[in-house]
Design a protein that fits this description.
This protein is α/β, with parallel strands linked by helices and about 280 residues long. The chain has 3 domains: about 25-90; about 110-230, Nucleotidyltransferase, domain 5; about 235-280, no CATH class. The chain has 10 helices and 7 strands. A 7-stranded mixed beta sheet has the order 1-2-5-4-3-6-7, with helices on both faces. The chain is flat. The two termini are about 50 Å apart. About 15% of the residues are buried.
Length: about 280
């Protein structure tokens, strides 16, 4: 291959170019700036949940034209990301901690653990009120743990511990906020959960198919039977079996086998018959 250590200009096309505009030099990044008044206004609007685009348009309307401003809409968004939300997140983390303390003062059976990152931002949080802890004593033998929700403002994972009462109704047993979904985060959570319930190991726990959760359960609750949530499994039927010609029949019969086999022996027998009927023995 020929070694090329320099560029050679062979052709210049000016059709899609334009002359320099000295009157627009203030739009270059090094010439743009946001005044203290604008900063305070942006902060006020962000606290009032006014969209950044709306905030910028208000500045444009007040100035008479966007050309009369020393900044662009991107500068407003960058300021919110860089300054405002960090300040609010720090303040709100402190307020959240104070709120948990107040709840504890009102009722000593209120349980919480709060782990802040650099004493400013929420890294892990777990709490359960007195009613949830009392409910666990009656309906805490098998618990569902779900982390499929995510708070959009602070990008924290919201997790919940849920049991089923004697009326077949879901009952709330505890709640968590987490920055990360790694093994150490779940290990921290399950250790808090065990402390909350007096170290009593669960008979069973249902979760989604998350390797980090599975490993943390093995470390913290080795005697607890861990099973994947049936809702998450059944939700994947369409994507996993859609390639089969009789996928609609397969889906209906699979649901019948899963939901109407009330004993382990009946399920095993029905499942084997189901695999043979549709030739699914080789499907992982």
């Amino acid at each position: 291959m020929k070694d090329v250590s320099f560029w050679t200009i062979s052709k210049v096309v000016l059709n899609h170019s334009h002359p320099c505009c000295p009157d627009q030099v203030e739009m270059l990044k090094q010439h743009r700036e946001i005044s203290m008044f604008v900063c305070r206004t942006i902060e006020t609007h962000e606290e009032a949940r006014i969209r950044p685009s709306k905030t910028y348009q208000l500045f444009v309307a007040a100035a008479g034209s966007h050309r009369k401003l020393d900044f662009i809409e991107k500068d407003v968004r960058n300021y919110i990301t860089r300054e405002v939300r960090n300040i609010f997140e720090e303040d709100n983390a402190k307020e959240f901690g104070k709120y948990l303390e107040r709840m504890k003062e009102k009722n000593q059976n209120f349980f919480f653990e709060l782990n802040l990152e650099g004493d400013h931002y929420i890294k892990h949080a777990f709490w359960a009120d007195a009613r949830s802890r009392a409910t666990f004593d009656y309906f805490g033998d098998v618990v569902s743990f779900d982390t499929t929700y995510n708070t959009n403002r602070y990008n924290l994972v919201l997790g919940s511990f849920v049991g089923v009462n004697h009326h077949g109704q879901s009952t709330f047993l505890g709640c968590t906020l987490m920055k990360n979904e790694d093994i150490q985060s779940f290990k921290w959570l399950f250790e808090c959960w065990l402390c909350c319930i007096g170290g009593k190991a669960l008979k069973g726990i249902l979760t989604d198919q998350c390797a980090s959760i599975q490993r943390a359960i093995e470390l913290c609750m080795p005697t607890t039977i861990h099973r994947w949530c049936i809702w998450h499994i059944m939700k994947k039927i369409q994507s996993k079996l859609n390639g089969y010609k009789a996928h609609n029949e397969i889906k209906q019969e699979m649901r019948h086998v899963v939901w109407n086999s009330y004993r382990k022996e009946a399920f095993d027998r029905n499942w084997i018959d189901f695999l043979r009927k549709y030739g699914l023995g080789g499907n992982k």
